[in-house]
Amino acid sequence: MRRKTSILLIILALFLASCNLPTGIEPETPESSETPSIDALGTAVELTAVARITELAGTVVVSATEIPASLPTETSNPTPTATPCTPIVTASTTANIRSGPDTVYQVVGSLPENGVAKIAGRNDANTWWYIEFAGGVGGYAWIAGSVVTASCVPDVVQVVAAPPTPQPTATEKVSLPPPVAGTPDLVADGMQWWPNPGKKNQPMSIQVKVTNNGSAPAGQFTVVWLSNQTEPGCSWTVSGLGVGESKNLDCEFTYTTQPAATSTFWITLFVDSNSQIAESNEGNNKRDAQIKVEP
């Protein structure tokens, strides 16, 4: 720094010295038989400059001030802020909206497929959403998380307490008769018919007998008589049968099939054919027999 200042002072001094020289007067050149050397000339110039600087030192003050290079100005880019969004649920299918976070609560409405509702909270188990719904209590209701897709949900969602669980509706009590000890036992007790043998295209009188040999009365049951193996014949509905009680059931049946000669048909009696009565013995509810019919 000091070296730069010295050089500037020398240059300035030389400039001022040249300005003070008189114009139009050529300086006298001393006669010399020898041409001065370069070293001698340099020394003379240096001495003249030093003398002139010394003369002007009292009046000339040169100050050099370093100007710092200007630094580039940083341009600040503002950090973009995220646009806030609203937590919502979108229905994956038409979904029920309920008064509480469980299927035991009453249905108060529904959200159609792709329908949207704003989230206001959740249940403690994080399985149901508490949503804004005009048909709910206070404008809010519940929807199951399994039937919707949630979006824009913050890390913390308010937990809303479930309302009291609804009590089941009281149903009318039906008075039942007191249980009776023992079990009924219905028996296919017998079959008879007349005329015997029967005649084609002529009505035959059929009579069957049913008995309850169990230790408890039997309720309503059905009795079936088959005219030939599985072919239908007659049927009866019996309202009930007491312990040790028997009942005869009658009907008429006509065989219309044309036999070439006297024919034999297998007839069957079924008691409690629909298994309506729980019995102590189910093996005596059936009886088979043969009946002859002439042409």
In short:
By secondary structure, this protein is mainly β.
Structural summary, described in words:
Strands 6-5-4-1-7 form a 5-stranded antiparallel beta sheet, with no helix packed on it. A 5-stranded mixed beta sheet has the order 9-15-14-11-12, with no helix packed on it. Mean pLDDT is 80; it is low at 21-51 and 56-67. Among the domains are: 88-151, SH3 type barrels (Roll), CATH 2.30.30.40; 186-294, Immunoglobulin-like. With 295 residues, the protein is mainly beta. It has 2 helices and 15 strands. Helix 1 packs across helix 2. The chain is rod-shaped and about 170 Å long.
> SSE string, helix = H, strand = E?
HHEEEEEEEEEEEEEEE
| pLDDT averaged over residues | 80
The number of distinct β-strands equals: 15
Specify the helix fraction band. Answer: 10-25%
> Judging from the principal axes of the Cα atoms, what is the shape?
rod-shaped
Distance between the termini: 153 Å
Q: Strand arrangement, largest sheet?
A: 6-5-4-1-7
Tell me the CATH superfamily of the domain at 186-294: Immunoglobulins
Topology:
Elements: H1 2-19, H2 38-56, E1 88-91, E2 95-98, E3 107-111, E4 116-122, E5 128-132, E6 140-144, E7 148-151, E8 186-194, E9 198-199, E10 204-212, E11 221-228, E12 231-238, E13 246-253, E14 263-271, E15 286-294
Parallel strand pairs: 9-15
Antiparallel strand pairs: 1-4, 1-7, 2-3, 4-5, 5-6, 8-10, 10-13, 11-12, 11-14, 14-15
Helix pairs in contact: 1-2
